[in-house]
Structure formats: structure tokens, C-alpha cells
Amino acid sequence: MTETDEIDFEIDPEDLEGGPGTERELGEPCLLVDDLHITYRVLGAKRIGTAAADDAKGRRFLRRLLAQGRDQVGSVREIPAVRGVSFTARRGESIGIVGINGSGKSTLLRAVAGLIPPTKGAVYVAGEPSLLGVNAVLMGKLSGERNIMIGGLALGLTQAEVRAKFDDIVEFSGIGDAVYLPMRTYSSGMSARLRFAISSAATPDILMIDEALATGDATFRQKSKARIDTVREQAGTVFLVSHSLATIESICSRVLWVHEGRLVMDGPAEDVCAAYKGFVRAKRRKS
Amino acid sequence: MEENGLARMGVRPSFRDYVRELWRRRAFIGVLATSKSQSRNQNSYLGQLWAVLTPLLNATVYVIIFGIILDTTRGMSNGIAFIVIGTFMFRFFDRSVVVGADSIRNNLSLVRSVHFPRAVLPIAQVLSELTTLLPALIVMIGVSWVSQFFPGQGPVPLDWSWFLIVPAVLLLWLFSTGCAFLVGRWVAITPDIKNLIPFAMRFLMYGSGVIFSINHLLGDHPAAKILEYQPVAVYLYLARGAIADEPTIPQDPVMWYLGVGWALLFLVVGFVMFWRGEERYGRD
């Protein structure tokens, strides 16, 4: 993974005019994360160090076979993805999460949404969070139309409500008649747009967005920014994970910087983004 | 924390809340189930026609191998009907357990994107098997009826008892859903168990007399009673009693009581077990 991918300047800040609106009055706390730990259990993963040991010369064939066998049988590796994160979010806040690849951003977001049970610590929340991820494929074999119904029902809408919002969702996503084709035929941008339209149709109390805005074109980005603002105006909270600092700076008032599963910095968007940019530049120079 | 209006996330809801939430998602279960059974036949020219063609071809294979070539059903008045009903009903149960076992893992992206009671998934999976069973049932009944015109096969008269296939299938469906809950939880937490399922199913298949008559083979053997009253054998008995006209399979109220009892027992125990694991699904 090259570090040059990390800052994405592709998005022009002009696409997302309007600014984050930091002056907005903040409400009472609606989310409290208390010493959150998430450890993934990976079955059948190679143990660290065995690869090097295998290469050691003079090893007997049998012993090498045994060493390899140990990796294949009963090997469990614990991977700490989030290690002890605590913060509080208030109503009407929009919070960006930045960090390099593999730093635990998406895991943090999912855990905060209550979709991955915490290994240790706890998340307290008022209202129902809704997560919107680019890689959360609903069902690729089914048409977009079917997926809208499934997604809407999964979010807790009734069938009548989904039907009422159907045209709105299709129009917002801008995919037109393609909504009747199976979702596996969609481009990544199309399906990201449809997912965003579905997830934000229910106007959740807490909206969590995982990289979704990076996939849309300029028009779509503008539309989605408007929708995020609507959620915030209805006293909701928005979380946004993105590699695009331009997107984060234009939408978020507050930014959390996560590195190796720990919270490095938590503060106003400009300060954290500046510090993060400095960190990435320093890292790039080193490599 | 509760007093600030903040509720802890990822905690298993109380049993009553869980059931209420599940009931609220019943439309979701229905749509998920029908979508899954539709998508199964989507990538072919004949499309949904395969929902009928697949069971028809299956029945043909069984009839040719077991009914005509092997003649495994000595002592039966109509071996073809016996085998076709047995294999179709067992296939539904077998498929239900297999898809139930994978219900969390196969829908991980859904589990990790949206909140809903996870019991929706095994229920929807088994329900989708039930929707594919319905066209198969028509084929099953049709083939059973036609079989009486084959040489050496006894009569399968049109009878009011045919309607009993409906409660028999419903009971088997409830029982299968209970089993799907159990294996769904076990496999979600210990994936290795999935590899044991085919063997358990094979045991059940041979132990329930799907393609041969247990009574005829075992006679007065002490194990015969256990094999006769275990759930899968009970449901095969009920389905055969409804359609086929075998002198050895009379209508028996005891079998109906057992059928209801097994279904309720597995459904309740399975559901409670599944609910107790709720906060652990989706971590890996």
C-alpha cells in the first residue's frame, strides 16, 4: 500500500461549498464511546514469524511439514483493530474520522453503529444509528428495486413507506431505469449512490458514512452534502470516514484521527486535518 | 448511562423485546425469503421454470434407480410414491439445515450494515426453502398419482386425506426452522461444525427410512422404536400417510401428536438458543 494514496486531492473543495457550519449550536450528548476495544478473531491465519522460520536452512523436511501443519490446523490469530477509544458526540455534530489504511477507522465506525460487538468497553447511544458503507453490498443477484425494498425494510421502514419513498430514492441516486437490473451489473459508483440513497431515506438519528462520497461524481457529491445537512438540521449526528481530506474538511466540524486502533487526536477539523497532513507527508518522505 | 436517554449498544435485548422486534420485521422476512428463492433460478434461460423442472428431474432419477432398477421397497404397495415423497420431504429438511447453518455468514454484509434481530436470517432462509418446496410438492403429488399406472405399483387413490399434506408440511417447516436456529448459532460461533452437518444429515437420512422402509428392515429390533419416533421419521410418516395409500402407514393420531410436539420443542429451544447468542453474531 503506497502512502501516496492517502490524501486524495481529486475532490475540489468547490464541489462541496457551504462549509461545515461550525457555528451551529450543539445539542445534548447522543453517543458515548467508553474505552472501546475490538479484537478480530481470524481462523486459519498464518502465525507471525513462521514464514521466516520456514526459510531457515538445514531444516528437516518432516519438521518443516509439521511447522506448516501447525499453521493450517487450529491456528487462531487475534487482531486488535481498535484499542481503547473513548469520545462523546453531541446532536448536530458532524464528525470525520481520518487515518491511514488499516488504522481501524471502518471497524470503529461499525462498532459505534453497534454492528460489531465490542470485545471490551461499551458504546452508549440515543436513537438508532444507520451505517452506510461502500462495501456493504446488499444482494448483488437482485435488482436495485428489490434491494431498495430489502434495505428499507432492514432499516425498519414498513413496506408502504418504502413504496412511498421509492421514486425519491431512485431519483436521488440518479440511476434511472438501471434500478430494474441486478445490482451486480452496476458500476461501483452506481451502487454506492443507490446505497447512500437507501440508507439516508430513513432519516436516521445517527448517520454513518464509510467512504461513500468518494465514489460519486461532482453533482452527486453536492446532493449528498445537502442530504447530510438535512440530517444534521434534524438534530442528528453524522460520522464520515474518508481518505479525502477535502471532503472531510468541507463537511465535518470535528475530526478524530485514528492510528493503529488508538485515538491520536480529537478536535476541530482544521487543526486535526493539518496535523494529519503533516504526519502523512513526513511518512512519505521517510519511505 | 440509561438516565441520560443513552442506551448501551450491542446488548442482547430482553426476550419479549426481541420477539416484538422480530414480529415488526415480518414483512422483511417475507421479502428476503422470496428474493432469495427467486435469485436462485435467475441466471438461466428458463428462469423460474427450473423451480418445477429441478424437482421433476429429481423424481425421475429416484423413480428409475430405486423404483425400477433396484426395487429397494419390497413390502410396499407403491414403492415409487413412497420414495418420491420421502426424498422430497427430506430434501426440504436437509436444505433448510444447510442454509440455516450459513445464515449469518452468508449475510455478513447485511449483518454488518443494518440493525435487526438476527433471527430474521434463519427464518427467512428456511422460508425461502419452503417457497421452493411448493412447486416441488405439486410435482411430488403428481408423480405419486401417476406412479399407480406403472406395472407392479399399487393404487394411489384421490382422497380427502391428501389435504393432510398441508399440516404435515407446516409442521416440518416449523421443525426445520427450529433446527436452523440451532445450527445457525453453532456455526456462527464455531464454523467447524459446518463440516459435520453433512454426516449428521446422512445419519438422519438412513435412520429415517427415506428410500427404504425402516420397519420392514428392522422388524422387532430394539432400535426400531427410536428410529420410528424420531422427528424426521415422524414427518415422513405424516406426509406419506397423507398421499400414499400404504397398508403399513395408516393414519395414526399418536404420530400427529408427536409431529406437533417435536415441532414446538425444536422451535422454542432453537429460538431461545439463537436469541442467547444474539450479541455475538457478526464479530468475525
UniProtKB/TrEMBL annotation, chain A:
Keyword ATP-binding belongs to the record: yes
Domain ABC transporter, residue spans: 67-285
A GO MF label: ATP binding
Keywords: ATP-binding, Nucleotide-binding, Transport
Region named Disordered: 1-24
Alphabetical list of Gene3D superfamilies matching this protein: P-loop containing nucleotide triphosphate hydrolases
Pfam families: ABC_tran (PF00005)
Keyword Nucleotide-binding in record: yes
Biased composition (Acidic residues): 1-17
InterPro entries the UniProt entry points to: AAA+_ATPase, ABC_transporter-like_ATP-bd, ABC_transporter-like_CS, ABC_transpr_TagH-like, Bact_Polysacc_Export_ATP-bd, P-loop_NTPase
Family of this protein: Belongs to the ABC transporter superfamily.
Identification of the protein by name: Teichoic acid ABC transporter ATP-binding protein
Lineage: Bacteria, Bacillati, Actinomycetota, Actinomycetes, Micrococcales
